[in-house]
Write a structure and sequence with these properties.
A three-stranded antiparallel beta sheet has the order 2-3-4. The radius of gyration is 23 Å and the shape is elongated. The protein starts with a helix and ends with a strand. By secondary structure, the chain is mainly alpha-helical. α2 packs across α4, α3 crosses α4 and α5 runs antiparallel to α6. The model has no long low-confidence stretch (mean pLDDT about 90). It is built from nine helices and five strands; from the N terminus they run ααααααββββαααβ.
């Protein structure tokens, strides 16, 4: 490819991303350049708007469009896949200081992106016994799952509620047997249990015992009974699939 054409592509792309500060390459009709500017921005917004409806609603249209402009201008877009643009947007919010934005917006965006991430996860169903003993057998987690921790109650944020103070929040996002994406708020102990089960194959009894040791729990028998009920509830919800021997 001629070097001159490559330079033109580079210059035109830079203009499309930041038309206010970077002039259009010479020789390109202004009307035609305007069509490309509109197409690029509208296509980006079409992807981002769909994934982050709550962020868009709480910011309002003017601030949201300004944020999308900043993402187009400054965001490090390394992927050619449209479905990966929302993840790039989440990374942009987490890494780029954007003035006058709510301090919880990056976490809210990550929470909204998690639904898409779980929905498109390519996972194979692992071998398991759906009715297996969750205490004695090795527990099998749903492979299409995210165990998330936030500083803010992101699942409650909306136009009617905007938190003023952080509140640590644990959520699990997973794909159910009907392929629908589910969200469930959990406590720190449940989050730790899921993390242990995801880190290495273990029986429910082993994972609960480890949590008891970490907490220095005074009554291991009562903790085991609580853990038995918790494992059963997580299986009913589809967060756990069952167990293997």
């Amino acid at each position: 490819m001629p070097a001159g054409f490559q330079q033109f592509q580079h210059d035109f792309a830079a203009h499309l991303r930041d038309p206010r500060r970077i002039a259009c390459p010479r020789g390109l009709p202004a009307r035609r350049a305007g069509v490309y500017r509109e197409l690029v921005f509208n296509n980006l917004c079409g992807v981002v708007d769909k994934c982050f409806p709550v962020c868009r609603a709480v910011l309002g249209e003017t601030r949201w469009r300004r944020l999308c402009r900043g993402f187009l201008r400054d965001g490090a877009l390394h992927t050619p896949w449209f479905r990966e643009i929302p993840q790039e947007f989440v990374r942009y919010l987490g890494a780029t200081p954007v003035p006058r934005l709510p301090c919880w917006l990056a976490e809210l965006a990550h929470y909204e992106w998690a639904e898409l991430a779980v929905d498109v996860m390519e996972t194979a169903l692992p071998p398991h016994d759906p009715a297996g003993d969750l205490l004695a057998g090795k527990v099998v987690l749903n492979p299409a799952l995210l165990n998330l921790a936030y500083d803010w109650p992101v699942q409650r944020i909306g136009q009617a509620y905007r938190p003023r103070q952080p509140r640590p929040t644990h959520l699990v996002v997973y794909r159910a047997a009907d392929d629908g994406v589910r969200f469930c708020e959990i406590n720190p102990v449940t989050a730790r249990l899921l993390a242990l089960l995801a880190a290495a194959p273990s029986t429910g009894r082993e994972a609960i015992a480890r949590i008891g040791a970490e907490l220095n729990h005074p009554n291991p028998d009562s903790l085991l009974d609580y853990g038995r009920q918790l494992l059963a509830d997580l299986r009913r919800q589809g967060i756990l699939l069952g167990s293997t021997s």
